[in-house]
């Protein structure tokens, strides 16, 4: 038995359908761990949605959505992996010397992101006819060119097919003004569609009213994970041991606490992303307090686990192993029980996904 992601197919797909219906011009994003679903599965959903383009994070991921290789780079293909036939945008900007990104340029369905004038010139020289998106630097200060470089970038793109400008905004704050300013400069250098991320529906509407080009909206989290109730990670209880007070358990031979007498071995561990935490943004006071509280618990060797039984979170007996975790459980928990697991979708790798 394993750590399994259970997907209520009807509810999950109804949610996807409603997001797509409300966002004409949507570009689904399928990258990384595929938001817990894996990239091949998301590519299949994009096909089901009838959309003709999607965005991936890296050049390596092109083969995964195309169905031509698995995550280890091993060649696949055939009826089992029909792959996504439409346009695939690579979000990470191209850099010289990356053989995979170089090879992707040969796929006429791949759209490469360029974020430096020198890279635009290099791609124009080596791959005339390639399809590219030019990236504008935003207040994110991640990738992109400054507005005073836009004209030079367009000039350097001679011989390339510019399919758009990309504007990737921060998650928080008010950014319509910034997007409008960047788009104004960009479109005066070259009139092509705008590809934007993280703008509210109202801001998108306003952008579409202001500019007479297509505005394409990249969406991952809301599309794939918005139907919370449709998604459940569950792990099975593989074994249970009654232990006496102060008995030692686990790799680290910690003593059982006074209130702990039932140890459960459950499926799921570090390989699945159990208890993986991103550094929190701790945006509000309550989150700061929670983070501190978790730290205190860890210092006292009592870390709250993401597993729960009867609606209550269980404590780890020690840090998770590769594919198993040791938990302190109440008497009611027995071998064969299924426990609900709270997973962070962007770091989750279930052993199996069941779409039912
Ligand atoms: C990952 C990514 C997205 C999708 O972000 P979500 O918050 O998951 O919707 C959009 N745009 C860019 C450029 C990205 O890298």
UniProtKB/TrEMBL annotation:
EC number: 5.1.1.1
InterPro entries for this protein: Ala_racemase, Ala_racemase/Decarboxylase_C, Ala_racemase_N, PLP-binding_barrel
Pfam families in the cross-refs: Ala_racemase_N
Gene Ontology molecular function: any one: alanine racemase activity
GO annotations of cellular component type: cytosol
Cofactor: pyridoxal 5'-phosphate
Keywords, in A-Z order: Isomerase, Pyridoxal phosphate
Domain Alanine racemase N-terminal: 16-174
Signal peptide: none
Record-linked SUPFAM superfamilies: PLP-binding barrel
Record's protein name: Alanine racemase
Organism the protein comes from: Acidipropionibacterium virtanenii
């Amino acid at each position: 038995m394993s750590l399994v992601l259970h997907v209520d197919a009807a509810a999950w797909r109804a949610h996807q359908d409603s997001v797509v219906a409300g966002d004409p011009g949507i570009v689904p994003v399928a990258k990384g761990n595929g938001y817990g679903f894996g990239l091949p599965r998301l590519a299949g959903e994009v096909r089901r949605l009838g959309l003709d383009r999607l965005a991936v994070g890296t050049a390596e991921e092109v083969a995964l959505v195309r169905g031509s290789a698995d995550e280890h780079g091993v060649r696949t293909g055939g009826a089992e992996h029909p792959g996504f036939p439409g346009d695939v945008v690579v979000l990470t900007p191209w850099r010289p010397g990356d053989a995979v990104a170089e090879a992707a340029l040969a796929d006429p369905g791949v759209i490469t992101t360029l974020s430096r004038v020198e890279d635009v010139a290099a791609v124009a020289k080596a791959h005339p006819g390639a399809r590219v998106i030019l990236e504008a630097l935003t207040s994110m200060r991640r990738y992109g060119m400054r507005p005073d470089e836009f004209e030079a970038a367009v000039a350097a793109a001679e011989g390339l097919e510019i399919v758009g400008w990309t504007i990737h905004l921060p998650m928080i704050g008010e950014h319509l003004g910034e997007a409008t300013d960047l788009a104004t400069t960009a479109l005066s250098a070259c009139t092509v569609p705008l590809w934007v991320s993280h703008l509210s529906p109202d801001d998108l509407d306003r952008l579409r009213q202001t500019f007479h080009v297509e505005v394409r909206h990249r969406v991952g989290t809301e599309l794939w994970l918005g139907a919370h109730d449709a998604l459940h990670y569950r792990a099975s209880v593989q074994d249970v041991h009654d232990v006496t007070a102060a008995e030692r358990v686990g790799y680290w031979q910690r003593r059982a606490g006074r209130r702990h007498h039932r140890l459960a071995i459950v499926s799921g561990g570090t390989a699945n992303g159990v208890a993986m935490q991103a550094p929190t943004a701790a945006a509000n006071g309550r989150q700061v307090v929670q983070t501190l509280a978790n730290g205190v618990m860890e210092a006292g060797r009592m870390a709250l686990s993401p597993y729960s039984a009867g609606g209550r979170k269980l404590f780890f007996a020690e840090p998770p192993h590769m594919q198993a975790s040791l938990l302190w459980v109440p008497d009611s928990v027995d071998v064969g029980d299924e426990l609900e697991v709270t997973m962070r979708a962007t770091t989750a790798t279930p052993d199996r996904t069941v779409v039912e």
